[in-house]
Amino acid sequence: MFSLVLPTGGELWPEVEALAPSLNEIGINMVWLPPAYKGASGGYPSAMIPTISLTSASLIKGSVATKYGDKAQLLAAINALKEHNIAVLLDVVVNHKMGADEKEALRVQRVDEQDRTQIDEEIIECEAWTRYTFPVRAGQYSQFVWDYKCFSGIDHIENPTEDGVFKIVNDYTGEGWNEQVDDELGNFDYLMGANIDFRNHAVTEEIKYWARWVMEQTGCDGFRLDAVKHIPARFYKAWIEHVQEVAPQPLFIVAEYWSHEVEKLQQYIDWSRAKRCCLMPHCR
């Protein structure tokens, strides 16, 4: 477990490494680490940029290291935990992206923010920050380029400049939002930022690749999945089955689903039932 308000400065990973023996002594056998990648501002704000870089040797979003430290420090912390029989869960945020590298010309439709199923028929020609090229990384780790076709919605457009919820006109426009998500606000597929469209096969394959890569790099024992109420259950069913199949040992996987309605939690569990999976949504 960790706090969103941990200080910046790259001290967390060394602190975790130093605490490993005492955590073992008091009976801790598993820890959930914060994201090993960066938000748009470099830390852990309200939305993340899930990237393949993890913390590469290049200057990305203002720094090489993340808010919590660099890659070497992260791996040292994980190794220390494992040496003291403490399993490590990594945080997975794949609902949306922020902090794009380039703007793109695209078409959008306004959406009623209180009822996301109400999509205006008017098509607006505009620009938005939806292209992620990772220019400093220059193809290291992954050559995948994210563009507007990878997303279903956005909350800010330019030329004309306007804030709100906008449905991106892409290959899946006639299908509306993704299904198998929470029905709050009519359909809670869209949360914030550039909303990832899980109907795009190239996107889902890239996220599977990211999972394989991060497991190889870190040797983690499982994942905590962020904001699953906004992500179609069918995606996580396939993703969980994939990571369990390629992992060297069974993974422990827990999901965050903020709802007080037990029926919604049970429905998502039923939708996303996967082999060799422990999916345990959170209640509030």
- Mean pLDDT over all positions: 88
Beta-strand residue percentage:
15-25%
Computed structural class: alpha/beta
- Main sheet specs: 6 strands, antiparallel
CATH architecture classification of the largest domain? Alpha-Beta Barrel
Radius of gyration: 19 Å
Number of helices: 5
Number of domains: 2
Order of helices and strands: HEHEEEEEEEHEHEH
**Global outline:** globular
For the largest beta sheet, what order do the strands appear in spatially?
3-8-6-7-4-5
- Helix content percent band: 10-25%
**Spatial gap, N to C terminus:** 16 Å
Runs in which pLDDT lies below 50 for 5 or more consecutive residues are 45-59
What is the CATH topology assignment of the largest domain? TIM Barrel
CATH superfamily of the largest domain: Glycosidases
EC number: 3.2.1.1
Protein name: Alpha-amylase
Enzyme class: hydrolase
GO biological process, one term: carbohydrate metabolic process
